[in-house]
Amino acid sequence: MPEPVSQGRLFVLSGPSGVGKSTVLAQVRSLLPDLWYSVSATTRAMRPGEVDGENYHFVTEERFRHLISTGRLLEHAHFAGNWYGTPRDPVEERLAAGEDVLLEIEVQGARQVRQAPGLGPDAVLIFLAPPSVDELIRRLVGRGTEDRATIEARLAAARNELAAEPEFDHTVVNTNVGAAAAGLVQLVTGSRPGSRVP
Ligand code: ADP
Ligand code: 5GP
To answer: Ligand 2 centre from 129 Cα, in Å?
Structure first.
């Protein structure tokens, strides 16, 4: 009889738009090549340099509604004017194969993962926090990828998202990209709930 493969661990990285999730994850990817990074579906327009199937699966609203109605999303949320969701099958397949999986999603989605039967209770929820609200605004505006109305919508969402930090198992403060990436690696490779990595 073959040994049963143990279930992989599910990590969720969340935090306000503009805090640096993508930037920090780019470093984590090179440090943890064996971690599997989920590719979300979204209805938002592609930014310059983004690649369909790599950064996101860019889909129409009709396609997104179909994904929801057929139960193909593990979680989904409407965020600052667009839909975002995590395709269920690839995540469940990787976990069942014993691989660790990381989702980079906003706060409403993280809450849904926490409630997901069989997955939520063991999921490790990590909050990426800005060093200050002013610095968060500087980063969001400085990225230069959104128009004024979109930045306003994201800032409004950010105020609620910042208040959600206590719902998470761990917080990493993104003052410096390298240090935040190292903090995440430390959490993924094993540490205790309730830690706050400066
Ligand atoms: P998110 O994925 O959370 O929306 P991004 O990774 O796109 O955020 O980062 C938003 C902006 O902040 C980008 O211009 C990025 O270069 C910048 N940034 C990210 N982390 C830091 C940091 N530690 N210090 C200064 N700027 C940062
Ligand atoms: P952006 O448009 O800047 O790429 O992402 C906006 C927000 O949506 C970010 O906070 C990002 O983490 C979140 N996001 C990306 N993919 C998903 C997803 O599959 N589900 C949810 N709930 N949020 C997502």
So the answer is: 15
Residue nearest to atom 6 of ligand 2 (CA): 17
- The answer to whether 94 and 155 are in contact (CB under 8 A) is no
For the chain, give the longest Cα–Cα distance.
61
Low-confidence ranges of the chain (pLDDT < 70): 1-5, 191-198
**Res 34: pLDDT:** 86
Q: Is the CB of 75 under 6 A from ligand 2?
A: yes
Any idea which residue has 């968060």 for tokens? 136
At 191 the pLDDT is 52
The end-to-end CA distance of the chain, in Å, is 47
Which ligand lies nearest to the CA atom of residue 39 in the structure? 2
Strands (E), 88-188: 101-104, 124-129, 170-173
Burial (CB count <10 Å: 0-12, 13-18, 19+), residue 127? buried
Q: Which helix (H) or strand (E) holds 31?
A: helix 21-31
User: What's CA 87's distance to the chain center, in Å?
Assistant: 13
pLDDT in tens, 14-51: 999 899 999 999 999 999 988 999 999 999 999 999 99
Smallest CA-to-CA distance from 103 within 180, 36, 161, 157 is with: 36
